[in-house]
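Tutorial, part two.
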Amino acid sequence: MVIDISNCFNCYNLVTYAFLPIQLNQCQHPPKKTKEGVHVQVYLTMAMKALTTAFLKWQQDQLKLEALGKPSTWEMYRRKLKVLNQNKLIVFADDYFGIFPSHEVFMLANVPVRDTEKELNITRDQVYARYTEPLGDKKS
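Running the prediction step on this input gives:
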């Protein structure tokens, strides 16, 4: 069985009208071996096949875009993820670890990085204060 999903309105109608005969207050238990049960099963099966076909078509379009060298949504997602995580470092100390921006790790380790404090408008003491708590504030 092949479902043509080229017209999204038809797919929308299929999903929308499939659930109209069912009232929410009557759906405490799924219908069993009745005409309504068969209708629900058929509509859900058709909807799942339509969604699967739509995803596979989208996936093929993305692969075609990548083959042509044009940006695809996968590529844009990967690029965005790389930008978000490119300046992070994982610091391990005994059994603990933390993920920190690289400039903060360098500042705390007293590694001289040119104009970091001026560009980010932050000092080493401010970074240190963010990750430490005063001894008097510990709760017992």
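The radius of gyration is 28 Å. In part three we will examine how such features are distributed along the chain.
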